Amino acid sequence: MSAAPTSEGAVAVERGAVAGAPAKRLPRRLLWIGLVVVVLALVPLLAGNFTVSLLNDIGIGALVALGLVLLTGIGGATSFGQAAFVGIAAYATAWLSTTQGLSPWIGLAFALGLTGLSALGIGLLTLRLGGHFLPLSTIAWGLSIAMLFGNVDALGRHTGLSNIPALTIGTFSLADPRAIYYLIWVLVGLAILFSHNLLQSRPGRAIRSLRGGAILLASVGADAYRVRLTLFVTAALFAGLAGWLYAHMNRFVSPSPFDVRASIEYLLMAVAGGLGHLTGALVGSALVLILKNGLQDVLPLLTQRAGQLEAVAFATLFILLLHFARGGLMGFVRRWTHRRARTQAPRQPMAAVAPLPHRTLPERGSLVLSVTGAVKRFGGLVAVNDVSFEVKAGEIMGLIGPNGAGKSTMFNLLTCTLPMTAGQVRFLGHDIGGMPQRKVARLGLARTFQHVKLRPHMTLLDNVALGAHARTTAGVLKAGLRLDRAEERQILQEAQRQLDRIGLGDRAHELAGSLPLGTQRILEIARALAADPVLLVLDEPAAGLRRKEKMALGDLLRKLREEGVTILIVEHDMDFVMKLVDRLVVMNFGSKLVEGVPSAVRADARVQAAYLGSVV
Amino acid sequence: MTPDVALILGIDGLANGAVYLLAGLGLVLIFSVTRVVFVPFGDVAAFAALTLAAFETGRVPPTIGLVLVLTALALATEIGSLVRRGETARIPRALLGWGVLPLVPCLLAWLASRPGVPAPVHIATAVLLVVPIAPLLSRVVFQPIADASVLVLLIVSLALHFLLSGLGLLFFGPEGSRTQPLASGSLPLGDGFTVSGQVILMVASAIVLSGLFFLVFERTIAGKALRATAVNRVGARLVGIRPARTALLAYGCASLLAGLIGVLIAPVTTMYYDSGFIIGLKAFVAAIIGGLVSYPMTAIGALAVGVVESFASFWSGALKDVIVFSLLIPVLMLRSFLSVHAEEEEEEVDQ
User: Fold this and answer.
1) CA torsion sign, A551 to A557 to A560 to A561?
2) I need a labelling partner for B247 at 20 to 30 A (CA). Which of A140, A286, A302, A395 fits?
């Protein structure tokens, strides 16, 4: 049993090396992990029964809190019903192993299956509704499930189920708290490792981008709803694992540890530890449970109503935390360590791997995109009125017009961000009108945003790697178990290639939020390029760039054109556009004014009138 | 089930629905103005009920102590923030507004607790006494983090409920109480049916109050300011509406509604210190039916919740709450099919 912590340490070494983490910080981090593992392994030999039991509770709490860190801290959704998932698993295995007399290990499969299915059902219903509907409905079902436990005869009503068998491995019984201790902590270690791997992977990047909004994810071909659903089920499964351990450790289940109050306590753990960090779950669980024990010791000395004061104290503490320290304890630790050691990591050369497969680009001059009679009405306002144009493979097409001409609306129509009122858009022969943006992105249409949508707390490399989402396939399970490494290396190599291309290659491990706005726009182009697009649609890429940067951008776009990428560009900077594009469409008041080569457009009296005002 | 039973259950459901209607209005009001999902709403209602019960048994209501504690906290928060901003000149005004004003209902309540005071005065005082609770809580807990995300506000709000129910237990104790009916007599409805006066009173109050609500929102400047803040906070600020002040107004109105709910429901249900939570949550189900923004849909939702609850309690008393909450499932399904996604930046909790 003591072999498990060492193997965990070994994986951590490999993890650091592959993720290309800063070389200087690696040994210290490893040292800490090793220290924690050794201390945890030794505790049962040295400490008393009370400490071991407390640590068992902390481990179980940490599993649930870990799910909440993933769901709330990283994914931006929350659940006030996490304790209900713990309860479903605990009751499932309790029922199966007492009334049905089956092995607890079958109970594990049953418990996880049932928890996963419940989470899937609940998630399917609530996750499509953004914002506050999810947390509010979690309160309701969190209550309902706890009430259900208390009212079903087969589950022992309010008295619960007792005489749950202890776990056994072969003939070795884990009834002793010291024995189950190792199982709990090995599982906690594995869960943290799984989550860590998950976050440094293709699905992990999508999860970390959830808070950037559904449109960002759709633009790289990912489905925010599915990503969120997967995350929700994963978090519930962690809670389910905790519930299974809980049932066989205490060997008794009753409804009250699974009600909304308990869910809030789990959330408190995650917030107290630090929602942004996986270790926050562990730290938070320890903090809350140790504090709770302390209060239970101290309060009875002060007052006779200790139980009531405990609830008041916890609620007060929680509110104070959210007022003054939303980053939790790990937030402080992180800030402190960053201040001391935030040196720029030297870039580690990555071993070359086979590049990701490329799309075959359409033949130069063939039709890529055709817009026929596009109309968009917002109520009575006609933003785009019967616009038609075509974009051919290998050309740079400009879309210009004065303010309010309907360029951005047109842009949103052809990327399928907005539904069209009438008309048709065909991309590579597919009618994409009414198609979700995600599918259009997967067909090979990549875009950038006028209001930059990058994840400021992710590195440049991760931001660009997100662009390759649709070209790759690794899922949560594969990523968590590190079976995705070959593909992951391909993705990172591709992202690095695109970063080199735009001249940010040596800043790959900086945070995207530290770049100036103009450079962030360029970074978005790299993300779009990582998707290996047929058509690149750029929304005002030159805004906020200095002259030299604009020239570099122009060169980059010309180079892309030579490689056969088709580009449609919406831009304000006339000089930049005129020098760059092959053809132009000019829009004014929602309608197409002129279409033609730059020199002809420049000479057109209607265009001059639209921009400068007419003399007539 | 016979038609007679169905009729009785229906009338019962209507009375329940009236309560959820009022609670739902309060919740939607607070949410739309401040983005706070005010979970402790039900607790305030429970406190009003327990206050009335204390009056009836001739005790000084413990609510006075609660309000005093909250007043002290709010005063400290306000003066603290004034001192931090260097606006010490405004401290006397703060003392008056945050220190003295909430004491008025306390004083009234103390006077009303003396023997020989008629019941209507008790009722009015019980309602008045809980009115400061929500505004004081908002000053202490929500105003300092008014710009936080909905998610953070919701977590705080839920924690606040547990804080309040803990305080409720400390101040009121674990005993439940039920008060004298507000309206005696009953209305015969032909065929041997009677509708009790209390039920009529509950339904009538809901109708009158929601009518008033509508008038205030449509016809007064204060109501328009509330609506403006709900629609666009920044815009409201630009035309000179102070969000903090409208928020207080919203909390005050909601607190008043909660107080009325408390005294209306106290004669028909035994109220405990924590009975409010379930009432509040059922009102949430109603508010979610209204998408947390629509008052008319919330009203319809509230009636639906009330009727479902009363029929559910006929089939299974123990599971009636589970049945009411599972009403959310079809509602959420419908909403998720109808919902049009407005793109917004997702919530950041830890920053």
Assistant:
1) negative
2) A140
